[in-house]
């Protein structure tokens, strides 16, 4: 829980509270291996909506109606001439080059497994299986940004705005991010994983100005900062196409046919590919990180522009001076019992919720929701990781 964000004016339901660009962001490393394709800077999906649907459905013959509603412009895509990393536009390629890519560009070593950055990324993949909940490359971009910056202190101050944890809390967060898939292994093995990451991180990116980030304590703190404050980013050209189709003014019969097509498409995709449909990454957002959790949130985050621009939208009227709260839980989790909700929040975010809903249910029995009772005592850490939203 951060310091909180409060409305400075009256905000109406459905109104955009703010649109925020991340201080730094990065794709998840498993994206490429799963054939997700997104701009390496702004995370805009590089596939057309039709290509996106074909991949998720495993059906290359699929044709989407109203293709003009897809905003993907492949003619604008550009690659780094040295390492072939792809961007959605010349603007994104230039922005990346100016902020961090000079340090992170692999050049002709892109496919060299012995290159320090490749070794770091491979180690992360071996330690952190999908669904990813953070990314070592978000930390790498933080370092690269400072290394390239003329005003290094400005960037250090920008990163210092994010919530920091105590040593014990940092240890818990690191364990959560690295330990869940290795539950049967000893704690020393987890410490060994973190130390391996630190050594590879140092080999790839060490900078004297940031020397404290490369010490065991500093690396743990940096790791925990990203784990605590990282906001998941999901982009999808298919989703954007659906929203554009929803806005079309069509005759009733055509509207019904299009809605039925889209409904069936999503059912087929979920059956084929599951629930994780978006290109995914994480970013650090100053304003969003100030928003505290509530089990009855009055605002929600989304990425309607199919890139890393975060929109915070009011779910109800918010009066001036009222705290703006989002939920760290998904809709299904928020319907569970107070005990169940707080179990997830304690294990994933290290706090107990005291929102009005939880306070009103304070006298309820400390039992899990009906949907969890059948598996009570069987829920493992892997399931809880699937429930994580930000960390």
UniProtKB/TrEMBL annotation:
GO molecular function: histone H3K36 trimethyltransferase activity; histone H4K20 trimethyltransferase activity; zinc ion binding
Source organism, top-level taxon: Eukaryota
Domain SET residues, every copy: 1-329
Enzyme Commission identifier(s): 2.1.1.359, 2.1.1.372
GO cellular component: cytoplasm
Region (Disordered): 365-391
TM regions (residue ranges): none
Catalyzed reaction equations: L-lysyl(36)-[histone H3] + 3 S-adenosyl-L-methionine = N(6),N(6),N(6)-trimethyl-L-lysyl(36)-[histone H3] + 3 S-adenosyl-L-homocysteine + 3 H(+); L-lysyl-[protein] + 3 S-adenosyl-L-methionine = N(6),N(6),N(6)-trimethyl-L-lysyl-[protein] + 3 S-adenosyl-L-homocysteine + 3 H(+); L-lysyl(20)-[histone H4] + 3 S-adenosyl-L-methionine = N(6),N(6),N(6)-trimethyl-L-lysyl(20)-[histone H4] + 3 S-adenosyl-L-homocysteine + 3 H(+)
UniProt main location, coarse: cytoplasm
Pfam families recorded: SET
Compartments, record wording: Cytoplasm
GO biological process, any: negative regulation of gene expression, epigenetic
Keyword terms, alphabetized: Cytoplasm, Metal-binding, Methyltransferase, S-adenosyl-L-methionine, Transferase, Zinc, Zinc-finger
Protein name in the entry: Protein-lysine N-trimethyltransferase SMYD5
């Amino acid at each position: 829980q951060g310091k909180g964000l409060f409305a400075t004016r009256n905000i109406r339901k459905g109104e955009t509270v703010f649109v925020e660009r991340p201080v730094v962001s990065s794709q998840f490393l498993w994206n490429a291996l799963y054939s997700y394709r997104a701009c390496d800077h702004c995370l805009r999906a590089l596939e057309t909506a039709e290509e996106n649907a074909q991949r998720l459905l495993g059906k290359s013959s699929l044709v989407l109606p109203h293709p003009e509603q897809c905003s993907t412009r492949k003619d604008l895509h550009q690659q780094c001439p040295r390492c072939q990393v792809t961007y959605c536009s010349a603007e994104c390629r230039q922005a990346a080059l100016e902020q961090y890519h000079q340090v992170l560009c692999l050049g002709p070593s892109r496919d060299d497994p012995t290159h320090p950055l490749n070794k770091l990324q491979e180690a992360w993949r071996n330690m952190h299986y999908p669904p990813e909940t953070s990314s070592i490359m978000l930390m790498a971009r933080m370092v690269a940004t400072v290394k390239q910056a003329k005003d290094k202190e400005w960037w250090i101050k920008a990163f210092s705005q994010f919530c920091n944890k105590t040593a014990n809390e940092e240890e818990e967060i690191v364990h959560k991010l690295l330990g869940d898939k290795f539950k049967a292994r000893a704690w020393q093995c987890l410490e060994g994983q973190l130390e391996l990451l630190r050594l590879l991180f140092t080999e790839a990116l060490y900078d004297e100005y940031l020397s404290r980030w490369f010490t065991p304590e500093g690396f743990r703190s940096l790791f925990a900062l990203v784990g605590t404050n990282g906001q998941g980013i999901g982009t999808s050209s298919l989703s954007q196409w659906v929203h554009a189709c929803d806005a079309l003014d069509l005759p009733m019969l055509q509207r019904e046919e299009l809605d039925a097509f889209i409904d069936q498409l999503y059912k087929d995709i979920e059956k084929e590919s599951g629930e994780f449909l978006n290109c995914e990454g994480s970013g650090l957002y100053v304003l969003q990180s100030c928003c505290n959790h509530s089990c009855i949130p009055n605002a929600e985050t989304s990425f309607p522009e199919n890139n890393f621009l975060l929109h915070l939208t009011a779910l109800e009227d918010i009066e001036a001076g009222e705290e703006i709260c989002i939920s760290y839980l998904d809709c299904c989790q928020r319907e569970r019992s107070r005990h169940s909700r707080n179990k997830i929040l304690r294990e994933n975010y290290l706090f107990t919720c005291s929102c009005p809903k939880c306070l009103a249910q304070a006298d309820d029995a400390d039992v899990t929701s009906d949907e969890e009772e059948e598996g009570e005592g069987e829920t493992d850490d892997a399931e809880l990781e699937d429930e994580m939203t930000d960390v």
